[in-house]
Input
Amino acid sequence: MIHKSAQATRRYMEFISAMCQYQPAQAVADKFGHSVTTVCEWDKHILSIRLPPPNLNRLRVLLVDEKAVRRRHNYVTVVMNGDTRELVFMKEGKKKETLLEFLDSLKDRQKASIQAVAMDRAGAYLAAVREGLPQADAVFDKFHIIQNLNRALDDVRRGEYREAARNKSPEIRLIKGQRFNLFRLPENRSEAQTLRLRQLLDANGNLSAAHLLCEQLRLLWDYQHRGYAERYLRDWVSWARESGLRPMIRFANGLWRDRESVLSYIRHGITTGPLEAFNGTIERILRRACGMRDLEYLFLKIRQETVK
Output
């Protein structure tokens, strides 16, 4: 049967849509003699019919993150079901109102089932969860926290480099090129990298203290009892303050301020890792699909990869 607006049969449109899942839209258009606009319109139409609506019942854990989908840092807010890995929401923007739009669309019984929301430390998402899901725990992603910690460590490194440069100290040779070596876990360093790092830390007390603080904080997420974890975090914050290193003190003060959301990990053990891991799939879709100004189409293309 010929579709009245597409001038093609439903079966043929489904065939083109299936091809678009594995090939760039432009390649499909060239292969079958259609315009890329027509191919994308058919693909979008078929996906809108075949894909079920997001399953918003029995949600227990939500993963929230922002993704850049256009040039000049145009972001969308993405929400994933933490248990099923199904994409349930995507909209342009990364403000509080963007996430609240999704939360406000949920029915009371759907909201009531949500126990935790994993996110980075952006204040906008935290404010949205506190307003829209007051019964749920906000869980700050531990990998984002470690990234923030590494930035504080790097601020210490750059400060020490500038000081060595001003004083024309030979220590500058030890600091130069050590940025990523400072971040690496011990098991990921070669013998040569371990030797270079040991030489640097033996020579520079401030970097040695900052690096030790980083290694100590990683132990926080090994705790299984929240009370013990909070006690350890309190001790760590004290150690950071006693170090006298401003970047580490700023980080420690922020961590203590946000301790409720940091320590919620002990109860729920969730991160935004599955959503972060999905970045590669999103990048592939962005390369293959056309019309990225059409966020509805992009949402359908991404959901196609998450709906079983």
About this structure: The CA atoms of residues 187 and 194 lie 10 Å apart. DSSP finds 17 helices and seven strands in the chain. Residues 61-141+271-306 form a domain with the Nucleotidyltransferase; domain 5 fold (CATH 3.30.420.10).
